[in-house]
């Protein structure tokens, strides 16, 4: 059954369940979207801006234009019938009015039903917008969703710990973004179980985290009550590592890898 954009947005929001987290394997084009969407159990997709920029030979950190970001999102949403959340970086705008304008365009022109929005100013995790400005930008994204009639799922990123900041500020930012209209807090820097527990105790809403080698295992994140786990550009790295290993093996006249026979089609 084909879902409307409104239904996809509602579904995406409902999939963020504490203790039964939404696992989103990040994608960057039509083919990766289709391959992941066809995997058993997958119910929603998320893009990774780092991957979308890098496969075009461009850096992350709004290395592509807002027009290019919307086109990339439209290609991905057009390949699948699942809800798609788009890593929309900082909204590709210097002010809140621009965030509203661009997020509205994203919703209307691409069919996306969720976004990530960051609170750091540049490509690095620090410095960040001051809390009031960052919260206003989250509110601006919410206003865009309201204007379109689509209940956009906002995953507001808190870069404080990853940028070397302190815990209390990170929690204050998380709660300010929730009050401004965020649905989920994407809390970077939760590198161990104790930090995940503290964040779950102190943040007044659902929590999204990054998964990677050495981080808290997925099953344990579920037990603790996390609502979403994503992998950012890690899935592109995973893909490239497999390709590089295969290239080395083939160049050395090794056996044909079984995955060389993987069949696919759009």
TrEMBL record:
Keywords assigned by UniProt? Lyase, Pyruvate
Xref: InterPro entries: ICL/PEPM, Pyrv/PenolPyrv_kinase-like_dom, Pyrv_kinase-like_dom_sf
Q: Which GO MF term does the entry hold, naming one? A: lyase activity
> Domain of life of the organism in this record?
Bacteria
Question: Looking at the Swiss-Prot or TrEMBL record, what is one Pfam family this protein matches?
Answer: PEP_mutase
Q: Which SUPFAM superfamilies match?
A: Phosphoenolpyruvate/pyruvate domain
What name does the UniProt record give this protein? Isocitrate lyase/phosphoenolpyruvate mutase family protein
